[in-house]
Write a structure and sequence with these properties.
By secondary structure, this protein is α+β, with helices and mostly antiparallel strands. The chain contains 2 helices and 10 strands; from the N terminus they run αβββββββββαβ. The protein has an 8-stranded antiparallel β-barrel. A hairpin with a 2-residue loop joins strand 8 and strand 9. The longest helix is centred in the N-terminal third of the chain and has 38 residues.
Amino acid sequence: MQKQVTMKKKAMILRSIFFVSVLAAASICAQAQEQQAITGGDKLTPKFGIKGGLNLTSLYVDDVSKEHMKAGFNAGIFAKLPITTGFSIQPELLYSVKGAKDTYSNFVQGDGEYRFNLNYMELPVLAVVNLTRNFNIHAGPYLGYLFADNVKNVNSQGSIVGATDLKADDFNRWDVGLAGGVGFDVSAFTLGARYNYGLSDIGKSGNLSGDLTKNSKNAGVSIYVGFAF
């Protein structure tokens, strides 16, 4: 019970941070535009590019004793579509590997670890506000589609005692969430960090995926580099 309350508090804090960031972006948009105009900002020219980087993700499972971030990766394409000076819309299409490593300890199963590997195609659509010529904040929704998965059960000695037969259809295929972060642009190169918070349960109730994941959702940090054309 205490763990559930703690997780709810964490979720409330994360959502509060996200919405405060959005409000802050809106309030300083006019100031950012003025700064760009004074410094002679870039022309309103659309840009297209490729990007990729590291995912550090986790899931929240009620009946495990510890939770560990899992390393994955993201890669794809993006477009930066200027609306006015200092403000753009940035849609992306990404291949994103998420998941978690969650340890458990109970009388029936003993000690071990579940390894979740979830492969998504994601479509974030972000509002980008340039605070200076080279620094931006961005936030917006994302839609993800799970097209492959791999879940393993490993005992405390490190040997696989049973790889589950779960397929992608056993999970909820669609994932909806929020994303927000910061970016640095230097010429055609971009470097950034982003927090992604899923709003959809990954497991389906009434089957093994729901039993293993309970009400868990995707969450994690993405660090990326990109090149615009």
